[in-house]
Amino acid sequence: MIEIEVLRFDREKDKEPYFKKYKIEKKYKMKILDALIAINENYNDNLSFRSSCRAGQCGSCALKMNGEVVLACKSEIKDKSKIEPLDFPVIKDLIVDKTKIEEKVANMELFLETDDKDKNNENNEINEYNKDNNYIENNEINDNEVNENEINESNENKEIDENKNKEFKDLKKSSETNNIKLDGCGCPSIIENEECMDTKKVRSCIECYSCLSVCPVIKETKEFAGPYFMRYISKFDFDPRDIGERTKESIDEGLYYCTSCGKCGEICPKEINSFGDAIEKLRAIANMKDLGPLEAHKEVKELISKTGRSVEELDESFIKTVSKEQNKTEKEKVSPNSENENKSKKGKIAVFTGCMIDYRLQNVGFALIDVLKKNGIEVDVPEDQICCGSPMLRTGQTEIVENLVLKNKDALSDYDTVITMCAGCGATLKNDYPKYGVNLNVMDISEFLAKNLDTKQMKDLNLKVTYHDPCHLNRGQGIKEEPREILNKIKGVEFIEMEKPDQCCGAGGGVRAAKPEIAFGLGKKKAEMVEELDVDAVISICPFCQYNIQDALNKEGLDNIKVMNILELLKMSYDDK
């Protein structure tokens, strides 16, 4: 037997939703849908839920189990699970009201747009076909006007009519799909594979609307239509047959409000990457058509083009400081662009700093050097490294990315391992650089250190901390457990999970620069989660998250809580007593 809780609510008679417990017999590979059916069979409780195909194709059974969106027909039920509806208005129990979404779909007229002239040509050809064959598509029979002879004649010619009907439908289908070129039609006769690869990637949606349920930005503003609609628009914008103003439509629907958190792709039952395969490419098209990006994004591009960094240098950069220290003593073991004579047993290791740690959070860079020294690991900090290109990729300004990639390739390609301290940089080096033919062995610092920490040298810190999962680390790189392993190894640290550690803080996707009100709204929600825990610090591995969450805490009067990179906490544990 297993025990599960289901959130019950009937808007016609209940004031508030409530959880109700049920005990059912667990069967082999029992799905959530099977459990819900068993509840009704065993308890006769009139529990309401949607289901149809039971094959993961219709999307009607989407709901939440333990806070995560799943399809009830595909996910196995677990003991002590909590089952809830999607984050939409509830009609009854697990059935939600999708009326507003479906009305928006209808109002946006999301269908393939082709040239009117071509449509007229297609219609003329079909009409001509009808005329020549004396055949009308909607050939209906009025029972009141049909005599017996006409019925017999109809029966005799039934097979002929059916064949004509099939010919007509085949012709109409051909003209609609444009896979076969009709005479006088200007549509492409053949769509080459390379022309439709992008649109194919976003066409497998089953319209469960799960992505809209989990999108953090939708909950913050009405200006963003959400990933479902961005994906839908992109499907047509990427289609060579479509002539609609799709790029402008995407901008009007909030193209630049997306934080690139990737939550929509994580929960999508069809594994559609709505940001990477739809939104990011729409932004690139907008840039190409000179319809975007936003002014704040253009300023970042200009800065990168001039300086190689996405932020201005306020204090002396981390790389410059390390270089000067190396020049002072030949015995320095951390040296930019040098052949490290006392190489680590792990091979030659480079540190990729990223813009923020080089120019703004230099203390994190020095913490890295100190922590690695305590663990007997020596690294180089290559001087010629520049911005990884992530801010340009996320905002669609891809024309300067290849040059950034090639310069970093020259700086990093001789190393066995490249360590990153920024989630965005790490995700870009791992996921985007191979698209430009550059493959580096990149490791986030938590990956690198999780199994290699010398805890004997640590001192007790007597701190309570929580951890924020950066989107580009958790979902972008699949790194979730390693930072927690490290936190649980640090002496005197009590680690407490927040309610939703992987909920986006609002700092990514160019949103903090161009839509600061959205970044603050999402940061505030994160600050509220932190406030409930009574902790001393929030730990993360992303400079942008660090800044955004700290700003939100400060504005909420919680400036006594510090947001720290995990390396700063490790340095504290290794500092001499």
Which terms summarize this structure?
single chain, 577 residues, Ubiquitin-like (UB roll), Fumarate Reductase Iron-sulfur Protein, Chain B, domain 2, four-stranded parallel β-sheet, globular
Q: Helicity range of the residues?
A: 40-55%
- Derived from helix and strand composition plus strand pairing, the structural class reads alpha/beta
**Order of strands in the sheet with most strands:** 2-1-5-3-4
Instruction: Give the tally of β-strands.
Output: 14
User: What Rg, in angstroms, do the CA atoms define?
Assistant: 29 Å
CATH class of the largest domain equals Alpha Beta
The poorly predicted ranges are 117-123, 129-158, 167-184, 338-342
End-to-end C-alpha gap: 54 Å
Number of domains: 4
Task: Describe it.
This protein is an alpha/beta fold and 577 residues long. The chain has 25 helices and 14 strands. The protein folds into four domains: 2-97, Ubiquitin-like (UB roll) (Roll); 193-292, Fumarate Reductase Iron-sulfur Protein, Chain B, domain 2 (Orthogonal Bundle); 315-425, no CATH class; 455-574, Rossmann fold. It has helices at 32-43, 99-107, 116-132, 148-156, 158-177, 193-201, 210-214, 227-237, 246-252, 263-267, 274-288, 295-307, 318-328, 354-359, 362-374, 390-394, 401-412, 423-432, 445-449, 471-477, 481-489, 511-514, 516-531, 543-555, 566-574, and strands at residues 2-8, 18-24, 62-65, 68-71, 82-84, 90-92, 95-96, 349-352, 417-420, 442-444, 463-467, 493-495, 537-540, 562-565. Strands 2-1-5-3-4 form a five-stranded mixed sheet. It has a four-stranded parallel sheet with strand order 12-11-13-14, with helices on both faces.
